[in-house]
Amino acid sequence: MNQTQRTVDPCVMVIFGATGDLTKRKLFPALYNLAKDGFLPESLAIIGVGRQEMETKDFRQKIIADLKEFVGDSPDKKLLAWFEERIFYTGGDFDDDKKLFKDLKDLLAEVCQNLNIPENYFYYLATPPQLFANVAGKIHKNGLGRDENDNWRRFIFEKPFGRDIESAKKLNHELAKILKEKQIYRIDHYLGKETVQNLLIFRFGNSIFEPIWNRNFIDHVQITVAEELGVETRGGYYDTAGALRDMIPNHIFQLITLTAMEPPVSFEADAVRDEQAKILQAMQPFAPEDVLHNAVRGQYGAGEMKDEKVSAYRSEQAVAPKTNTETYAALKLSIDNWRWADVPFYIRTGKRLPTKRTDITIQFKKAPFMLFRDTTIEKLTTNRLVIHVQPDEGITLHFGAKIPGPIVNMGEVDMDFNYVDHFGEQISTGYERLLYDCMTGDATLFQRADMVEASWQIVSPILDVWQAIPARDFPNYESGSWGPTEADELLKNDGRKWKNTVD
Ligand code: BG6
């Protein structure tokens, strides 16, 4: 992990899928923010590659207009001009290695020569995953994929990386035939979020938490990734994926591994990732009967959100009218290792829930009651630590305090740390850090092949059971509610409850 500001080598970024949403909403704004803060080299070029034929001048115009829309108020004119002169475009059929990849090769040579950039390239594949191996293969075949003459070549692959264990293994295998693992950057944008990175600092940079961060003190862990929005315009993709595939083996497992891992021996990429991988290996894959007890799926029906009627998932654009795809998933997971034995990790994610909120709740065990038996206190407050990943990034410690007065009584209070109060507003897309790390060759915050496979290994049995036994009760939660009642029962059966309020 970059511990000090490192210099980015002069390089060319090549974006496949350059006319898509990710490029305009995230990638260019992230590059802009990096440039504004002085993190980009003067010798940099960005080549957009798309299916559409377009002149470089038109692409430049489009990107500058998009930047004006997505980087907030009054973008710096000088910076926009700086970008404009280093953006290029080439278009064509991704299957045609004779034309498109030859054009790309010529353009790269020309750009490097004109802007005096050594041939360091990094490719961002913001394409559908079916094209990953194909595009990487064609880049390689045209002599543009191998590290050579001290020049590096790196590849960032967007999620989803596979759709089950078999497809992930196949993709890893195909990429391994042409690339070295150290050239491959499997991106997960949750690792670009400040609070997620702060988990490492919070846990290992402070001495008071680590001694209690284990089964002796922690009752259970809850992770909620709630979204208010429905599937919007992404029905075509989402209906083939579902909530579990879309959010759990990637984003939520990242949150689990950082919460649960042992201290790494250093911040080197493999030291951190080895510890994350051990957590994934210790997570127990579900047997088919476990799926019935420890996994819950849901699909939103129509409802009302913020006084507006919203439609059911089955009526969304590009979604099959009788679809069985889940828009909500909750799991009870166990990590079978010395630190976490018997500490359940309850996780849930869903669309059309009452609020957009991601947090990790560490619920500590109750204090013994004896001392309070003759007081008016009937129940002791349990301590919990809530890591707010988004929005309002911060950390809250929840504990009990004496209510002032002559009798012994107890109230619940919070101690809050809020990022914005201490560090001010950070304007970030979440991609800045990840792009910068790739440019400096730091893969700590990217997933390794074994991690991706271990994650699919855990969720694939659930997907298999859900596919074999279609849900009979869909839609089973109203838009604007906290999901299906079975998800409440998942915790209730263990005498626990989801934390449904922002606390
Ligand atoms: C994406 C999923 O990876 O993450 C989306 O495909 C989801 O379905 C999004 O909405 C959530 O990201 P964030 O950063 O808004 O929590």
Tally of helical runs: 15
Q: What is the rounded Rg?
A: 24 Å
Cofactors and ligands: 6-O-phosphono-beta-D-glucopyranose
Average pLDDT confidence is 93
As laid out across the biggest beta sheet, the strand order is 8-11-12-7-13-14-15-16
Distinctive features:
503 residues, alpha/beta, six-stranded parallel sheet, globular, binds 6-O-phosphono-beta-D-glucopyranose
Describe this entry's structure for a reader:
The protein is an alpha/beta fold and 503 residues long. Helices cover 35% and strands 20% of the residues. α9 crosses α14 and α10 packs parallel to α14. The two termini are 31 Å apart. The model has no long low-confidence stretch (mean pLDDT 93). Bound molecules: 6-O-phosphono-beta-D-glucopyranose. The site of 6-O-phosphono-beta-D-glucopyranose has 5 residues, from loops.
Question: Helices and strands in order, then pairings?
Answer:
Elements: E1 11-16, H1 21-36, E2 44-50, H2 56-70, H3 77-84, E3 87-91, H4 100-115, E4 121-125, H5 132-141, E5 153-157, H6 165-178, E6 184-186, H7 194-204, E7 218-226, H8 235-241, H9 243-260, H10 269-282, H11 288-294, E8 295-298, E9 300-305, E10 308-310, E11 328-333, E12 345-350, E13 357-364, E14 384-390, E15 394-402, E16 410-418, H12 419-423, H13 432-439, H14 449-468, E17 477-479, H15 485-492
Parallel strand pairs: 1-2, 1-4, 2-3, 4-5, 5-6, 7-12, 9-17
Antiparallel strand pairs: 7-13, 8-11, 9-10, 11-12, 13-14, 14-15, 15-16
Helix pairs in contact: 1-2, 5-6, 6-14, 9-10, 9-14, 10-14
Bound molecules: 6-O-phosphono-beta-D-glucopyranose.
6-O-phosphono-beta-D-glucopyranose (BG6) is lined by residues 159, 189, 227, 246, 358.
